[in-house]
Specification:
Elements: H1 2-15, H2 23-37, H3 40-50, H4 57-63, H5 105-120, H6 124-170, H7 184-189
Helix pairs in contact: 1-2, 5-6
Length: about 190
C-alpha cells in the first residue's frame, strides 16, 4: 500500500516531464504517500484482514504460503529410504544426516567432497544419497550464478550513475553577473 502510493506520486511527478527524483522530491513525495497510507484506520484494517487483531492463528496460517516441497529426484526409490531397526535401550539411534544447501563457496566445496566420498561406495543407499547431494549442488550453483549476475548488473548500473555524477560535478556553474536587490527606482530605470 505505501509502495503503491509512493509509485503513484512518482508517476504524477513524471507526467510533468520530470525524469529523475532528487532528495527533496523524494522526501516530499514519500511524506505525502506515508501520511495518506499509514493511518490508524488503514493499519487496523490490515491487522484485522490478516488475523492479528483480534488474534486468530487459524486465519494467519490460512494466508501463510506453504513452503515448497522438495523436488523428487528422478529414478530415486523413496520407499526404503529409512530403515527402522530395533535398538537396545543403551544405544543411541543414529539420525540420518539431512543435506543442507550450501550458501558459501566453502560449503559448496564440502558438498563436492562429500559427493566424491559417497561415489566410491556405490550401494543402493549411497546412490540415493548421492542423487540428493548432486541435486543440492546443482540448485546451490544455480542460486550462486544468479546472484553473481544480479550483482554484476547492479555494479554496472552503479558505475553508470557514478560516471554521470562525475560529469555533473566537473562542470562549473556559470554565474552571469552579480545579483542585487532592485528598488522601485532601479525598476523604473530598466
Amino acid at each position: 500500500p505505501l509502495k503503491s502510493a509512493y509509485c503513484n506520486e512518482v508517476e504524477q511527478l513524471n507526467q510533468g516531464s520530470k525524469d529523475t527524483i532528487d532528495k527533496e522530491h523524494f522526501t516530499s513525495l514519500y511524506k505525502h504517500a506515508r501520511d495518506r497510507e499509514l493511518t490508524k484506520r488503514n493499519i487496523q484494517a490490515r491487522w484485522v484482514a490478516i488475523g492479528l487483531f483480534p488474534f486468530n492463528p487459524e486465519r494467519v496460517f490460512r494466508s501463510t504460503p506453504k513452503p515448497p516441497a522438495q523436488l523428487p529426484v528422478p529414478g530415486a526409490d523413496y520407499t526404503n529410504e529409512l530403515e527402522v531397526l530395533p535398538c537396545a535401550q543403551d544405544e543411541v539411534p543414529q539420525t540420518p544426516v539431512t543435506p543442507i544447501k550450501p550458501v558459501t563457496a566453502e560449503a559448496l566445496i564440502q558438498l563436492h567432497n562429500l559427493i566424491k566420498e559417497e561415489a566410491r561406495a556405490l550401494d543402493e543407499i549411497s546412490q540415493q544419497r548421492l542423487q540428493r547431494h548432486v541435486q543440492n549442488l546443482a540448485s546451490a550453483a544455480q542460486i550462486l550464478f544468479a546472484k553473481c549476475v544480479l550483482l554484476h548488473d547492479q555494479n554496472q548500473s552503479l558505475i553508470k550513475i557514478n560516471k554521470e555524477t562525475k560529469v555533473r560535478r566537473s562542470k562549473r556553474s556559470v554565474v552571469p553577473g552579480k545579483a542585487k536587490v532592485m528598488s522601485y527606482e532601479d525598476l523604473e530605470e530598466a
